[in-house]
Amino acid sequence: MAKYLISFPSAAMAVPDSEWEAVGRDSHAVIREAKDAGVYVFGGGIDEAVPPLLVSADGSVAEGGYPWAPALNGGFTVLELPSNKEAIEWAARIAKVCRCDQELRVFGFDPES
Questions:
Q1: The CATH homologous superfamily of the domain defined by 2-46+57-106
Q2: Which of 46, 61, 62, 81 is the most exposed place for a label (fewest CB within 10 A)?
Q3: Contact of 94 with 18, CB cutoff 8 Å
Q4: Residue 111 has pLDDT above 90, yes or no
């Protein structure tokens, strides 16, 4: 089975204030379903109040991420699934409850992880 990253950037969630409670309720319900199905690995969102740090191989630290890269923010869910078809189905369910499109990516297999 492969691990799939289902994610969205913060700007994608253009949700009216009146719908936030429903988004939270509905998205938590889908995550509970993933847990009950035994496919949930990890999920959460980037804390945008805490700026990233760029840590070099020599241990030096600089505030901010890669200056040339787009901001990494939003929500992330990692599921372990037997097929790309099932990953697309879960991504569609998450897109529906979050009210925004989701990016779907496959983690490369690493036998040490």
A1: Dimeric alpha+beta barrel (3.30.70.1060)
A2: 61
A3: no
A4: no
Please check whether residue 39 is in contact with residue 81, taking contact to mean a CB–CB distance below 8 angstroms.
yes
pLDDT at 105: 97
Distance CA 72, CA 23 (A): 21
**N-terminal to C-terminal alpha carbon distance within the chain:** 13
CA 49, 57, 78, 47: dihedral to nearest 10 degrees? 0
Q: Is 17 helix (H, G, I), strand (E, B) or coil?
A: helix
Alpha helices (runs of H) in 1-113, residue ranges in sequence order: 20-36, 84-98
- For the chain, the domains span 2-46+57-106
- Report the C-alpha gap between 32 and 13 in whole angstroms: 21
Q: Taking the model in full, what pTM does it have?
A: 0.89
What pLDDT digit, counting tens, does each position of 6-49 carry? Answer: 999 999 999 999 999 999 999 999 999 999 999 999 999 999 99
3-state secondary structure of 68: coil
Structure tokens at 88: 């697309």
